[in-house]
Design a protein that fits this description.
242 residues, 5 helices, alpha/beta, three-stranded antiparallel sheet, four-stranded parallel sheet
């Protein structure tokens, strides 16, 4: 049964700003003689983590890059991220005769949130631990889903979908939109999105940590190791790591 857990609620920015402002007011009023109350202990900070978001900020937000050289007739495009968006982009470019190189961090395969794990302990168990189901609101995507259904890769899910709490309470989520699941997991759907085409190259596992403009091209690096030069770059990685 497809399940998903609700994402933790982030503290509103307005509340954070208000708490900081009120602390400043208390400190100012205490300067007149009244002793300000003790500030609550700060939460210990974890180890700093490098993320592709910081790389993007360092690469792009410090300057605006404008290329004066025209795009060549046979460009090569780097796509960072091998999930549904990146694979769709690579497929669309290949259909137009444009070469694409897909860089993905996946250790076990492509797909991004279309991730599947399998356990075989006498019976084969399939776990979709990111996206357990999907819907189709776009006619072009619905056409692709219909092809998956015809090939036996996907089917409509008619069972319950909802939230399962730690105590065992299950809350169903009603929906009038058809919901689909991968028959053998979600990853085979990702594989089906990438056509066998000489114009598409996949590099994984790979973590692009730096982008650098150079002579009208983009140079990509993974931990200071060059990963080629490209006419254009498409960022198709998920927002949590960008």
């Amino acid at each position: 049964m497809p399940l998903f857990h609700p994402a933790p609620c982030a503290r509103p920015a307005a509340a954070r700003a208000a708490s900081r402002f009120s602390g400043a007011v208390v400190a100012a009023s205490g300067a007149g003689g009244a002793r300000p109350p003790k500030a609550p202990p700060r939460r210990p900070r974890g180890k700093p983590r490098f993320s592709r978001q910081s790389a993007i900020k360092k690469s792009f937000q410090q300057e605006q890059v404008v290329f004066s050289t025209p795009v060549p007739a046979d460009p090569t495009v780097a796509i960072i991220g091998g999930g549904a968006s990146g694979l769709s982009c690579a497929s669309a470019l290949a259909a137009r005769g444009v070469r694409a190189v897909v860089f993905d961090t996946g250790m076990h395969g492509l797909g991004g949130r279309m991730a599947t794990r399998m356990v075989d302990d006498g019976r084969r168990l399939v776990f979709d631990h990111a996206a357990q189901f999907f819907t189709a609101s776009d006619q072009r995507f619905q056409k692709l889903v219909d092809e998956w259904v015809e090939k036996g890769l996907a089917r409509e899910w008619r069972g319950s979908i909802g939230e399962l709490e730690a105590g065992g309470h299950f809350t169903a989520i009603p929906s009038s939109t058809p919901r689909y699941i991968g028959v053998r997991g979600m990853r085979p759907l990702a594989d089906a999105m990438l056509p066998e085409n000489d114009l598409i190259k996949v590099v994984r596992p790979s973590w692009i940590s730096k982008l650098e403009p150079f002579n009208g091209l983009w140079r990509l690096f993974e931990n200071e190791k060059p990963q080629g030069q490209y006419d254009a770059v498409v960022i198709a990685h998920n927002g949590c790591q960008l």
